[in-house]
Write a structure and sequence with these properties.
The protein has 223 residues and is α/β, with parallel strands linked by helices. The chain is built from 5 helices and 12 strands. The protein has helices spanning 39-50, 78-89, 131-138, 154-164, 204-222, and strands spanning 14-19, 23-27, 30-33, 54-59, 71-74, 94-97, 104-106, 125-127, 143-150, 169-174, 185-192, 195-203. The relative contact order is 0.16. CTP binds at residues 103, 113, 147, 161, 165.
Length: 223
């Protein structure tokens, strides 16, 4: 009941959250995607809602139910996610990019099913646009939070993304070897210019709640 009341430190704030994977078609029956259940992003959307924000959740394909009180926009490709995010962020104050966006798409989508003519197949891929970096550039006043999934050198890679993409905060997590993906638990290392905060291993809901509290505190410092 409490979670549906639009009260709390983010009352009056419009927040946009991306979550889940994207799906990049290769031909009519196949696609490239990323490993992501969407659970952490959905939990972030719910945590921001619980703090009073009006939340739009831009979601790649997942099997998760829409958090009550959250407006969900379903997308498939990185290009769709960019378009939906740019539109939703036009009147927003907070953007959290939790989606596992595909970095590459097919250079050309085949009109008919690719047949197994040869023993080897080489796919030509093209980089997708970076949703987070593009939204940041378009909306300089927005408070922008990125995620970073890393298999090594977590802080170096995460701080590099924080700087390069001009973020206010980045939430980094270790991935691979069964960590984070499709699990109900997670842990995060948060970094911002001049500070950091570790969120210890807990349910994705608890991790999202702690992240939302840090967002509230960092945003208050910036306002
Ligand atoms: N991201 C995005 N659009 C993309 C790729 C990534 O919005 N095309 C966002 C993710 O949602 C995440 C952040 O950028 O918030 C970092 O994603 P990550 O994959 O860790 O970093 P990349 O910048 O894509 O670099 P790399 O995959 O090479 O580590
Ligand atoms: Ca990436």
């Amino acid at each position: 009941v409490v979670s549906l009341l639009a009260d709390g430190p983010l009352r009056g704030v419009k927040a946009v959250v991306t979550a889940g994977p994207t799906r990049e078609p290769l031909d009519p029956v196949r696609f490239l995607t990323n490993r992501s259940s969407g659970k952490q992003g959905y939990a972030v959307a719910a945590a921001l809602r619980d703090r009073g924000a009006q939340v739009t959740l831009i979601s790649g394909p997942t099997t998760l139910p829409t958090p009550p009180g959250v407006t969900r926009v379903d997308v498939e490709t990185a290009a769709d996610m960019l378009q939906a995010s740019m539109q939703a962020c036009a009147d927003a104050q907070l953007f959290v990019a939790a989606a596992a966006v595909a970095d590459y798409r097919a250079a050309a989508i085949a009109d008919s099913k690719i047949k197994k003519h040869n023993a080897e197949l080489t796919l030509a891929l093209a980089r997708t646009d970076d949703v987070l970096a593009t939204v940041r550039q378009a909306y300089p006043a927005l408070f922008v939070v990125g995620f970073a999934a890393e298999t090594d050198d977590l802080e170096t890679h995460a701080r590099g993304k924080l700087q390069r993409k001009g973020l206010d905060l980045i939430a980094a997590n270790w991935v691979g070897q069964g960590r984070a993906f499709d699990q109900d638990d997670n842990s995060l290392q948060l970094f911002w210019d001049g500070g950091q905060h570790a969120i210890g291993h807990a349910s994705k809901a608890a991790v999202a709640a702690e992240l939302a509290d840090v967002i509230v505190a960092r945003r208050a410092k910036k306002l």
